[in-house]
């Protein structure tokens, strides 16, 4: 039993990472109804920018904030420059452009900062939360930041004019135009926010997994899993989904004999498919009815 | 029509449309449409399915590519972006009501006032809408997609009114509604016309209903205006009724 | 489904079922010219280029399979590397462990992949576009892990993989083994392309396309949607499996890390670049997959990935509906001018 609790806590700690990235995924899904395959690479690149700023002697929190601002601007710029000319192109072409961005960010990061592993500082410290605790102070801090982010997002979408406009633009762009909302800019704003949230995720994850251009590959997949398990339409669901995936991954690794450890990823992915079988819109997602 | 008359007419018109052509891709849907809407009046576009009524409304709002002049209060809005046209005071109640799902009734109303900055006035207008349509007041915190068809139509109209529009475009407001609800809806529309002097352009399948409320009517066939005149005259003309309106 | 999503996915539906706008005589001339070129090339280029061209054809076969699924049936897959891997491993294991003749392993690989595809198609029935894309992507991500896992390693060789011997040309044909594999792949590819064309043109093909365009209407007309969707998934996997099987002997090596999600994504890119819903487009997609990454590497070693990405974006700008879409548009323009 003690092992079980220990593993659940450790799973929650890794789940925090997935929750963070799942939140960014859901954010952009809300704004553009696409899953951005390049999301992880964008987050990785942002994290490198923060690392560089810190290397140049900037204090952690200053670098943190500046990175957020830069990432937001870059997200908006990508939408305006790369995707705007494509807004009439078929959906499959959009996915190809995501793949292209993935390749560009991965390659550019490797070129600028090379592929050696770098350590990234944690603002909370990596010591255990208390004597003998399975979670570290950083894990707890990460959980806290994700939670605060979630609340801020909720408040933004629920109570601000721009948040309402973004929701309207996402659910019904034509109707949104008819009330005077600049839908193109709302989408760009969604990109900016997703890039900034991704940057937060990257900076929180980097102290745990270390910084290198391929750090996000598997994390992104778990993030997708979390987002899907929770439901792509629900930011809170995504966070919960991320934690679930983390816990399941950890428990499978330690309690399924023989193959558990080797096939952690496979088991986590089988979980997604299983959840989708039972609830095609995720645990907390709302089923949107399509009209013919 | 002499030049002087034309000028006089344009001086009066709230909306003046001349030589309007519209396209779906390479297919032309409207051909040199001319019409005027006088301020404070209800104008209706009548015609069969596929005649180009909805297309005309979409063209006015810049939702499809157009050629020709569209003047609102003397400002040319032809070729402008939908968002700009809306902020100049054209509210469009689209086909299918354009309900925002996952958004509450009250938020839908706030969305209607998206281009306005006067916070206090917006809140006052929301209350006014609730007086106009008490049923929306009961459902203010409810998600808009849970409303009945009639309630969604009321919501769409009040969302359009939240803009404080110079001109309101209504696309098939009676579509899919029960006769009693339609009656109630059109009573409200005519009250809006008489009490608040809101100019409207209504597209309707149900010609009899539209002619009852309208001052002026235009008949459209395959993307062209084939006839126009005061609504009561059009409604009285037996041959038009039989040929075009089917009642 | 919110209206944006519906609208965006509608763009997928607008792909013409059969690009008949290209005049028949022209497309026949292009086909014959292409075939002549395909037959003469291996006699004038170096062995390495023959290998590359064989890979083009192998990718084209896999893309063709993906096209049946995505282009004609409207189901997404970012996971076809899994079926490709199953095909490759089937051939490698049968040849190197059980001593099968290479040619016998191809139909076995095809059948096994069909079965796997069919089975994966069953849960896929419940998933809508974006979730299906994710589920298949998950399949692609899990494949290398499964191949590496201990229980399977007696057959798969674990991380080490399996070396495969190239078969010699039969009947004393006056070609070397690279040329022979090229012609074998070309022949199989042509047969598969003809089968694909006939399938799409048949009654079943119309049902398959109807499911893509309007599932509700298709159901109303009595089309067994579940059966067709799973069958198409199976056929699509079968094509990918044959491609994988051929690749095992052409590359002479199979290993888990050759079949990561990168391959799945590459096939998807090839599909879109070639043209969704176009059978000849698959060859263009194959050419892109083999030669563009090399080209990018020649421009800049360190930034090869970035150059590749930039080329990809430019290509999508130039032809948002792929090469087939571009050809269709050009033909339409030319026809319009001559009229």
From TrEMBL, chain A:
The keyword Manganese does not apply. One of its GO terms (molecular function) is transmembrane transporter activity. GO terms for cellular component: plasma membrane. The chain crosses the membrane at residues 6-28, 60-83, 95-115, 135-157, 183-209, 215-232, 239-259, 265-285. The keyword Cell membrane applies. Pfam families: BPD_transp_2 (PF02653). GO terms for biological process: amino acid transport. This is Branched-chain amino acid ABC transporter permease. It comes from Roseibium aggregatum. The lineage of its organism: Bacteria, Pseudomonadati, Pseudomonadota, Alphaproteobacteria, Hyphomicrobiales.
From TrEMBL, chain B:
Keywords: Amino-acid transport, ATP-binding, Nucleotide-binding, Transport. Residues 15-247 form the ABC transporter domain. InterPro entries: AAA+_ATPase, ABC_transporter-like_ATP-bd, ABC_transporter-like_CS, BCAA_Transport_ATP-bd_LivF, P-loop_NTPase. GO terms for biological process: L-amino acid transport. Gene3D superfamilies: P-loop containing nucleotide triphosphate hydrolases (3.40.50.300). CDD domains: ABC_TM1139_LivF_branched. It holds the Pfam family ABC_tran. The keyword Transport applies. GO terms for molecular function: ATP binding; ATP hydrolysis activity; branched-chain amino acid transmembrane transporter activity. PROSITE patterns: ABC_TRANSPORTER_1, ABC_TRANSPORTER_2. Belongs to the ABC transporter superfamily. This is ABC transporter ATP-binding protein.
Automatic annotation (TrEMBL), chain C:
One of its GO terms (molecular function) is branched-chain amino acid transmembrane transporter activity. PANTHER family: HIGH-AFFINITY BRANCHED-CHAIN AMINO ACID TRANSPORT SYSTEM PERMEASE, HIGH-AFFINITY BRANCHED-CHAIN AMINO ACID TRANSPORT SYSTEM PERMEASE PROTEIN LIVM. It comes from Roseibium aggregatum. The keyword Nucleotidyltransferase does not apply. InterPro entries: ABC_transp_permease, LivM-like. The keyword Cell membrane applies. This is Branched-chain amino acid ABC transporter permease. Keywords: Cell membrane, Membrane, Transmembrane, Transmembrane helix. It is found in: Cell membrane. It is a multi-pass membrane protein. Coiled coil: none annotated. The chain crosses the membrane at residues 21-43, 49-69, 81-98, 104-122, 129-147, 180-200, 231-255, 261-291, 303-320. Pfam families: BPD_transp_2. It comes from the Bacteria. GO terms for cellular component: plasma membrane.
